[in-house]
Amino acid sequence: MITSSQSNIAQAARTIFERIRGALEASHKNQFVAIEPISGEYFLGATLSDAIGASRRAHPGRLAHAFRVGHKAAVHFGLQIR
């Protein structure tokens, strides 16, 4: 279950992401970005773990929300049918 605090973090991160999306898609497509919404800082990584790890090192104890640049979802589970 998602708490209201987590929902607020996700929404704040999405607002920041929408502001920087164009620039990220131009130069960091397919990378992951973790956004720490209190500071407004974002952290890029080749993997989800890299991006989240960078955010946690910079802001221990704070939650970040992650996106995959150029994709609708950060991760995809399941079989892709062609």
In short:
The protein has 82 residues and is of the alpha+beta class. Helices cover 43% and strands 17% of the residues.
Based on DSSP secondary structure assignment, what is the total number of beta strands?
3
Outline? globular
Number of helices: 2
Percent range for β-strand residues:
15-25%
Major beta sheet, specifics? 3 strands, antiparallel
Low-pLDDT sequence parts: none
Order of strands in the sheet with most strands: 2-1-3
What is the subunit arrangement here?
A: single chain
> From the helix content, strand content and strand pairing, which structural class follows?
alpha+beta
List the helices and strands in order: HEEHE
Q: Can you characterise this structure?
A:
- By secondary structure, the protein is of the alpha+beta class.
- About 45% of the residues lie in helices and about 15% in strands.
- A hairpin with a 4-residue loop joins β1 and β2.
- The longest helix has 24 residues, at about 5-25.
- It is globular, with a radius of gyration of 13 Å.
- The termini are far apart.
What's the arrangement of secondary structure elements?
Layout: H1 4-27, E1 32-36, E2 41-45, H2 48-58, E3 65-68
Antiparallel strand pairs: 1-2, 1-3
